[in-house]
Amino acid sequence: MPYKEREIEKQYFTIGEVAAQFNVAPSLIRFWETEFEELRPRKSKKGNRLYTPADVETFRTIYHLVKERGYTIPGARDILKQRGPQLKEKIDVIQSLEKVRGFLVQLKKEVEAAGKAAG
Amino acid sequence: MPYKEREIEKQYFTIGEVAAQFNVAPSLIRFWETEFEELRPRKSKKGNRLYTPADVETFRTIYHLVKERGYTIPGARDILKQRGPQLKEKIDVIQSLEKVRGFLVQLKKEVEAAGKAAG
DNA sequence: CTAACCCATGCCGTACAAAGAGCGTGAAAT
DNA sequence: ATTTCACGCTCTTTGTACGGCATGGGTTAG
Question: Rounded mean pLDDT of chain B?
Fold first, then answer.
C-alpha cells in the first residue's frame, strides 16, 4: 500500500473524536454502547475504543432515531433489530452488485482500449 | 331532528370506557390530554370527558406511536402535527423509508467489505 | 498531563400512578 | 315519597419510579 493511501484513510476514531463530531459527551456514547449491541467498537490493548467509519454510521443512525426523530431507546433498538433478519436478501443484492461491478470493470477496460485505439 | 339520528349521532364514551377498550388507566388518558392538544374531548356540564369515536381514533393513533412504535411523547407530537391527508399511511411510509435507510447503510458496509476482499 | 478507561453514584426530567374529594344513581330506611 | 347513604365513577392535585444520561473518583496509557 502506497504511503499516500495510508495517510489519507484514517483507520479508527477515538471516542473523543466521535463525540466532537456529533457534539455530544463521551459518556453518552459509552451509555449507548450498553443499550445497543450494534454499537460495540473494537478496543485497543489499553482498552480504548476504536471506531471504524462503519461504527460511526451506526452511531449516526441511533443519533438520528433518538435525538432527531424522537424514539425512545427501546424503540430505536427495535428498528435496528429489524434490519438484521433481512440478511439473506442483502446477500442476494450484494451478489448482484458484485456482478454489476465486474461488468463495469470490464466495461472500463474496453472503453479505455477504445480510447487508446482512437488516439 | 328525528329520534334515530340523535341516537346515532351523539354517542359518547366515558373515560372509563376508553380506558377499558385499550386496557390502560384513566390517569394515562388524562395525562396524554395535557400532552396532546389533539386529544381534548368535550366535557359535560359536570366536567366529565365525552369521547367521540373520532376522539377514540386520535387516542388510538397516539397509543400506536407511543406504546407500539416506541416514540417519546414529543416525537409522537411532531408526527401528529403533520396532519396530512392519510396520516396512517404516512407513518407506514416513514417506517418503510427508515428501514430502507438502515438497509442501505448496512449494505454500504458490506459492499465496502466485499470491495476490499475483492481487491 | 491530557485523554482515555471503568465504576459508582448523582441527578433531573418524563411519564405516568395514587391519593383525596365530589357527583349521581340506586337501594334501603324513614 | 322523600331522605340517607353507599358505591362506583369521575375529577384535580400531588407523589414517585424509572429513563437517560452526567459527574466524580481512582487509574493507566500515549
Answer: 81
